[in-house]
Every structure is written in C-alpha cells, then in structure tokens.
Amino acid sequence: MKWKDELRKLPVPDPPDELLARILASRAAGARVLLPQVTTASGQARYVRYAAAVAMLVAFGWLVSSTVKPSPMRHAGGPPIWSLDGMPLFPTMVLAQEQRVRDVRPRYALITTTVPSAVRAGRWTYEARWITDGVFTSSQGQRTIARAASVHDGKPVWFMTESGRDTVLVDQASLRPLRYVRPMRRHLLIQEFGRDSMVEWFHGGAPPNERHFQGSAALPGPAGSPLLVAWSSSIDALVQALPLARGWQGSVYSINWLVYSDRVPAFTPLDLRVTGSDRITVPAGTFDCWKLEVRDGVQKALVWVSKDRGWIVMRQRTSSDESGEWRIDRLAAVDTTPPAP
C-alpha cells in the first residue's frame, strides 16, 4: 500500500553498536521477561460463582414476593385500613424519596389571589424528549392535555384529562380539586375532596392477591386557596389564573397519595417563582414567556408560560441525582375549540 511505502521512507536512527552485545549477554545470564498468562478458573472457583448467582436469584425472588404485603393501620375512631408495605409499586411517584424527615413548610406565602376567569378550555399537545449530557436525545412521544367546562353536583367545574387516562375535576371558582381518578393496568386510585378534608381509595392486584387501602385526611391551607393533585399537569389550569409578573412568587400545596404516606408526606408545597422572561420557539410557534421555577423539595423544574394566554409552552425537569439528564416537554399543537367533557 502507498502509506506503507511512505512509512518506510521515514528516517530511523541506527541502533548503537553495543546493543547486540548487551542482548546476547542478557540471554546468557538467563534473564527473561515473564508475560501474564490467562488462566481458566478451577472447578471449585466456578462452583462458588454459580452458587453465588443462584443465591442472588433466590434473594431477588423473595424480595419480589414480599415487596407488597398488607400491614394493618387504624385511623383514630375509624375502621382498619391497609397500607402497602415495602417498596412502592410506582417508583415514579416517590422518585428519590426515602423515609426521612422533610420540611413541608411552604417557602413563600400561599397563593390566595388568582384570576379564575382567565382559565380557558382547549387541547394542548406536547412532544417530550429525554436529553443526556446535553448531546444525546431520545424521543418520549407525545401527550395531550384536554380541559373542558362541565358541571358536577351543580357546580361549574373544569374536566381535565391527559390522553384519556388521568382525570381531574376542578372547581372553576376556587381551582380546588373535587375528584381525581388514576386508572392503571391492575390498580386504581380515587381521591375525592370536600371543603376541608379528603378521602382516598386504592385498589391493586388481581384476585386472590388484591390489596385495598382507604384513608382520609384534613386538607392543608386556607379553605379558599388553590390545591393541586399528584399529576404533572395539575398545575396547568392554575398557571393560567396566576397574576405572573417580574418578581412574583407564591406556594401551593400538592396532595400526594395517602397510600404512600409512610414514605412521602401526604401534602407537600410547590414553591413557584418567576425568575425572568424568555422568547421561546417550539413546534407550535414562538412565544414571549415568563420563566417560572417550580420547586418540590429537592426536585426542581422550569416552566415557560406564555405572557398573553398563560399557556405552558415548555417544561424542563432536571434529574435530582446530578446525572446530567433532563426531560423537556415542548408545545407542539394547540386546539382552542372547547372539547366535549
């Protein structure tokens, strides 16, 4: 090959005259270089490894079988209920949460001033991407948030749903949830809310290994202040009603799953703060936005809210483990035609 010919033409220094004599003398002295050898494991070593692997499989099977088991709990003055013991069925609900003391006091004053009439019906479709190290991108598909006006028990409500799964009824005047339903493959979560208290039902598993939970709790904060549920899009309607401006800040309580109250507080504050403004271009267009920081304990997300209509144009959620990964949801399409509830 041509490159080999060119390589041979490169100048090479001549070896010193005494090099051959030194090599022969070294060989005569018996000096050798011992290179590492690849040895195969003995039968005993292989047996030990196999035994360890079997032990790990047995331990894993025991862990799976004992992960979810009923542990009786009793509310004061109430009937016995059931809680799920061991690891959570849905790790995303309790991401990075452990049994530890957590400060659940809101960082800012609770939100009491809203403009409920600014909330509008419509459909918002978002495309999601997962980004690693700012370079590697993987599509996470699309999701559609729908909001329609309806009536529940004689009250005007917002009927909100995500791609036909999670469903939330929100009182139009107070922006407080009235009912939250989350169906899953083999589980069902239902939360119902009154003026100052809530009740939750959780049904999981298939016969004969069904698990049931029923619990209740008093709601935090003033009776007229907004509340959110543990649904990523619960904040969308509230954001439309907030008087966002430079320097604005406020906190709102989010209601978690009572079934996991042994590892996650039943109520946690979301601390909201406007940190600036940006002009954002997404598939749905270009928008002038408020940049809103949303904190939930150690978790933090950034939300860009359009200044004119209060739409959430983009969300960015960074992993709390400092792994350099984050998820971005960008507004892909908007349909302002009121959907049927």
CATH class of the domain at 111-335, named Mainly Beta
Distance between the termini: 74 Å
How many strands?
17
What proportion of the residues is helical, as a percent range?
10-25%
β content, as a range?
A: 35-45%
| Widest β-sheet, arrangement of strands | 10-9-8-7-6-5-4-3-17-16-15-14-13-12-11
The whole-number mean of residue pLDDT values reads: 78
Task: Quickly count the helices.
Answer: 4
Identify low-pLDDT runs.
33-42, 60-99
What does the secondary structure layout of this molecule look like, with pairings?
Blueprint lengths: L1 H7 L10 H10 L14 H25 L1 E6 L5 E6 L36 E11 L3 E17 L2 E8 L4 E5 L5 E7 L3 E7 L3 E8 L6 E8 L8 E3 L5 H6 L8 E7 L11 E16 L2 E12 L2 E8 L5 E7 L6 E11 L6
Parallel strand pairs: 11-12
Antiparallel strand pairs: 1-2, 3-4, 3-17, 4-5, 5-6, 6-7, 7-8, 8-9, 9-10, 12-13, 13-14, 14-15, 15-16, 16-17
Q: What features would you describe in this structure?
A:
This protein has 341 residues and is mostly beta strands. The chain has a domain at 111-335: outer membrane lipoprotein receptor (LolB), chain A, CATH 2.50.20. 14% of the residues lie in helices and 43% in strands. The protein has helices spanning 2-8, 19-28, 43-67, 235-240, and strands spanning 69-74, 80-85, 122-132, 136-152, 155-162, 167-171, 177-183, 187-193, 197-204, 211-218, 227-229, 249-255, 267-282, 285-296, 299-306, 312-318, 325-335. Strand 9 and strand 10 form a beta hairpin. Mean pLDDT is 78; it is low at 33-42 and 60-99.
